[in-house]
Design brief:
- Chain A has about 250 residues and is an all-alpha fold.
- In chain A, about 90% of the residues lie in helices and about 0% in strands.
- Chain A is built from four helices and no strands.
- Chain A is elongated and about 205 Å long.
- With about 170 residues, chain B is an alpha+beta fold.
- The longest helix of chain B is centred in the N-terminal third of the chain and has 26 residues.
- The chains are: A mainly alpha (about 250), B alpha+beta (about 170).
- Chains A and B meet through helix 2, helix 3 and helix 4 of A and strand 1, helix 4, strand 3, helix 5 and helix 6 of B.
Chain lengths: ~250, ~170
């Protein structure tokens, strides 16, 4: 290191080479001063060199960081490009495999469907033939049946017409009877209404008489004591005197 | 007084203060009590024992004694009267009369006087109350009923009232 280039040999003290006169000047105090001065100078040099070293170190670290970033970016780009390439290849391969498998399955399914359709067509054709035969037979049976039914219905319609005529005649007779009954009921009802009216009026008169009587009873109730009634009582008893006397003498 | 002079119960004159059969029963009991008291007094007098004065008598008994001139000094006559009074109590005629209002003694006495004069001398009245009669009397004798009440009169004339109402309706 540069700062230690001028370091003297520690085994040989400066005072060792001094003369006694000089030694008197360079006494202990002076040496202490020199040591202090040397220490101060040493610290100063150390600080300055530390600052220089720190600055160099920071620049170096900055340069290293820049280089490292550039290097890492370059490495990552390369790796990403490689991964993308591999992924593309892998995906393409997978898709191709699946496409191949789907194509095979689809082809099998188409063949199976075609086979089934062919069989169904044959079956349908056979059924169609059977149905056509059955239908022809049914149509013939239905024609016979309808012919018979038509003949039967013709007979029944004739008999129904006769029945309708009879029913119409009976209805006319019933309507006439109902009309007669209505007339009778109307007459009876009018008579009953008149009788009810008369009965109600009679009942009203009877009730009114009871009301008047009740009113008189209430009005006359406590009007007379026995002393006031006595002449009338004796008068009435006088009128029945003979009957009372005959009964009491028995 | 001999037994021949004793009145029969049918000849008794009942005063107007004796109205009901309860009054007759009370009269009999009181007469018996007086008879016992007078007999006791007579026995004590014979024995020389001082006895109380004559027994007290109710106004009804006094009126009966006066009306029938009863001699209380005769012991035999008293006994005969006791018998006749007991017979009277059993044989007395009862007339049930129902009134519309509460009766008062004066009216009943007036009524019993008329009954005894006009109907039978040994008659009593049993009075009852029935306000529904309005006025008048509902009389029940031995075997008959005489409804002399206003209620019966109105009931009897209900037909006339209905006739009048019908006429009124016809005129309107």
């Amino acid at each position: 290191m540069g700062i230690f280039q001028h370091k003297q040999d520690p085994k040989k003290s400066p005072s060792d080479s001094l003369l006694p006169e000089e030694a008197h000047i360079f006494d202990e105090y002076f040496r202490e001063e020199l040591r202090n001065h040397g220490r101060w100078y040493f610290e100063k040099v150390i600080n300055e060199n530390g600052e220089l070293f720190k600055r160099d170190l920071e620049q170096t670290i900055a340069a290293v960081n820049a280089d490292l970033k550039e290097h890492v970016t370059k490495q990552l780009d390369g790796a990403i490009a490689q991964v993308n390439q591999e992924l593309k290849e892998h995906t393409a391969k997978q898709l191709q495999d699946q496409f191949d498998e789907y194509s095979k399955t689809l082809k099998d399914a188409q063949e199976q469907a075609l086979k089934s359709m062919t069989e169904s067509t044959e079956t349908l054709k056979q059924q169609h033939d059977e149905l056509r035969s059955a239908l022809q037979k049914n149509v013939k049976d239905q024609q016979d049946l309808l012919h018979n039914a038509f003949e039967d219905n013709k007979t029944q319609i004739a008999s129904m017409k006769e029945a309708q005529d009879a029913a119409l005649k009976w209805l006319n007779q019933s309507a006439q009877a109902l009309n007669d009954q209505y007339q009778n009921i109307n007459t009876t009802l009018q008579k009953n209404v008149a009788a009810q009216e008369e009965m109600l009026v009679s009942s009203f008169q009877s009730n009114m008489a009871a009301i008047v009587e009740h009113y008189l009873l209430g009005a006359l109730g406590d009007q007379f004591d026995l002393k006031a009634q006595l002449p009338a009582i004796i008068k009435q008893m006088e009128e029945n005197k003979q009957a009372i006397a005959d009964d009491m003498k028995l | 007084m001999s037994n021949a002079e004793i009145k029969n119960y049918t000849e008794f004159v009942l005063p107007s203060s004796i109205v009901s059969k309860a009054d007759v029963s009370r009269l009999v009991r009181e007469f018996e009590a007086v008879d016992n008291a007078l007999t006791t007094k007579k026995v004590k007098n014979k024995a020389g024992v001082e006895s109380a004065d004559a027994p007290a008598m109710s106004p009804q008994l006094q009126a009966f004694l006066e009306a029938n001139t009863v001699d209380l000094e005769n012991t035999g006559a008293r006994s005969a009267y006791v018998k006749q009074l007991r017979l009277l109590k059993d044989k007395v005629r009862v007339m049930n009369m129902t009134f519309a209002v509460i009766t008062d003694p004066e009216s009943l006495q007036e009524l019993i006087v008329w009954v005894r004069e006009s109907v039978h001398p040994q008659t009593v009245i049993e009075a009852h109350l029935q306000p529904a009669l309005v006025a008048g009397v509902y009389l029940r004798s031995q075997n008959h009923v005489f409804d002399l009440s206003v209620r019966n009169a109105l009931k009897a004339k209900r037909g006339e009232l209905e006739k009048e109402l019908g006429a009124l309706r016809g005129s309107k």
